[in-house]
């Protein structure tokens, strides 16, 4: 276990009683839960709405927060769209099993998002995005600590870093510019040879030639348990959970109105933290957010949880192998194909095959999952008020586990009308409005 680096204190002072509000948080993924708890710490009253809130008996599987690779990843300063991406779009279309693939049928809906994605991939844009992203990532851990402490979830933390591996010297050398880029943006990393990798992870098949260890990365052994622990604290602090489909979000003179099932809920403010579904709620208040989804998969190997100590990723395979409380989760790959297409079993078969080769003894896989990762074209989250409805605040993004707590902290500042610690201009939801509205 590595020593924890010192972190800033992000604790928030409660507002005077006259400035406290009743806030609806739509979505009980980790972004919604972290927002709810930070809002409570600021003194607000929260009502959290979700199709299936993380309370006793819930499977929680529809939240993207359930099925991710469980890694707090301060090394993720590099956006998905990089300068080589425009050349790779034809390959993404041609190979439905590639680590980053586009589903043909979805292409007409994806066009504006894809144009913005390619426009975000210039060298200049990637530098700008990385600088912005690292300003958030630097505070990610500091924002998680008070929440984890309060939720009594410290035992879920595993601070052992995250390992990237390369099978050939040529692959490693071609990743070097990315590594220098990460270092320039403040990421601490250590280059490893075969012996050092074997010492760290002796159970891996010896297919690796070089590796990189990101020391500051860490995992939660179960994001589901983390969500349940956070929900419990939100409830203990007086928060209410409402189960059901939220719709009809609208501004009233004094605040907001929302329908959940047949009921209507009134409040002073709403936070839309509905992950990949947030775009639909944004449209209800007249906003067009160019949000889409990266469909990602995981496969669980229940007997392999003790074979690795930390998440291991061969970038050429496009998935992480993360040791967790209930086994080894192989999670990742990106499929741009919308929210309604069925899962593609060929993708999970590919992940299974990959794990069998990379980690002998992983055993049988017992379950598979498809989740919908919220995704803006520039890989930056949305954090900010609706341009049309000032009593509606959005919060969601691609790195939602890592950035949930700092997003929640900033959401609490916005709702409380306090100056946020970070300039939020790059995160505004309307930043791609000139690329056209998303219709689906
Ligand atoms: C395979 C994979 C691996 C990943 N690995 C990592 C990683 O290692 N590190 C990392 O930082 N991120 C990772 N991510 C991304 C991360 O999981 C997401 O960014 C994050 O979970 C998003 O959280 P959220 O709270 O915004 O959305 P969600 O977790 O999806 O929560 C949104 C909630 O809102 C509910 N909802 C939506 N609409 C409505 C409605 N109208 N009414 C009621 N309820 C509604 C949904 O049911 C859901 O419960 C990964 C994602 C995938 C798919």
Automatic annotation (TrEMBL):
It comes from the Bacteria. Pfam families: DAO (PF01266). Keywords: Oxidoreductase. One of its GO terms (molecular function) is oxidoreductase activity. GO terms for cellular component: cytoplasm. Residues 23-413 form the FAD dependent oxidoreductase domain. The keyword Metal-binding does not apply. SUPFAM superfamilies: FAD-linked reductases, C-terminal domain, FAD/NAD(P)-binding domain. InterPro entries: FAD-dep_OxRdtase (IPR006076), FAD/NAD-bd_sf (IPR036188). The keyword Oxidoreductase applies. This is D-amino-acid dehydrogenase. It comes from Rhizobium azibense.
């Amino acid at each position: 276990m590595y020593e924890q680096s010192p972190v800033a204190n992000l604790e928030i002072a409660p507002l005077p009683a006259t400035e406290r509000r009743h806030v609806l948080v739509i979505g009980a993924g980790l972004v919604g839960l972290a927002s709810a708890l930070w809002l409570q710490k600021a003194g607000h009253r929260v009502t959290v709405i979700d199709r299936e809130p993380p309370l006793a008996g819930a499977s929680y599987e529809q939240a993207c927060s359930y099925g991710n690779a469980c890694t707090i990843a301060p090394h993720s300063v590099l956006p998905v769209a990089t300068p080589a991406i425009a050349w790779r779009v034809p390959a993404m279309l041609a190979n439905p099993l590639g680590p980053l693939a586009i589903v043909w049928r979805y292409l007409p809906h994806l066009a504006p998002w894809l144009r913005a994605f390619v426009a975000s991939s210039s060298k200049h844009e990637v530098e700008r995005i990385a600088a912005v992203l690292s300003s958030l990532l630097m505070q990610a851990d500091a924002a998680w600590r008070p929440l984890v402490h309060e939720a009594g979830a410290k035992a879920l933390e595993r601070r052992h870093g995250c390992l990237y591996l390369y099978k050939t010297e040529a692959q490693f050398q071609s990743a070097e510019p990315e590594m220098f880029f990460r270092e320039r943006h403040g990421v601490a990393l250590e280059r490893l040879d075969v012996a050092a990798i074997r010492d760290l992870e002796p159970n891996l098949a010896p297919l690796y030639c070089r590796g990189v260890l990101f020391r500051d990365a860490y995992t939660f052994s179960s994001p589901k348990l983390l969500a349940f622990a956070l929900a419990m604290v939100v409830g203990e602090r007086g928060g209410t959970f409402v189960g059901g489909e939220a719709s009809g979000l609208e501004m009233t003179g004094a605040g907001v109105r929302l329908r959940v099932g047949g009921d209507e809920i009134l409040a002073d403010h709403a936070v839309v933290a509905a992950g990949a579904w947030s775009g639909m709620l944004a449209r209800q208040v007249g906003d067009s957010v160019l949000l889409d989804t990266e469909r990602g998969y995981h496969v669980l190997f229940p007997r392999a949880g003790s074979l690795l100590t930390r998440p291991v990723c061969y970038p050429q395979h496009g998935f992480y192998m993360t040791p967790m409380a209930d086994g080894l989760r192989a999670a990742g790959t990106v499929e741009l194909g919308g929210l309604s297409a069925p899962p593609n079993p060929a993708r999970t078969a590919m992940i299974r095959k990959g794990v069998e080769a990379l980690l002998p003894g992983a055993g049988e896989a017992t379950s598979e999952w498809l989740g919908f990762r919220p995704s803006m074209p520039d890989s930056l989250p949305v954090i900010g008020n609706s341009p049309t409805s000032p009593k509606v605040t959005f919060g969601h993004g691609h790195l939602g586990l890592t950035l949930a707590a700092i997003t929640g902290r900033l959401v609490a500042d916005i709702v409380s009308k306090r100056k946020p610690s970070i300039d939020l201009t790059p995160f505004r939801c309307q930043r791609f409005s000139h690329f056209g509205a998303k219709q689906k």
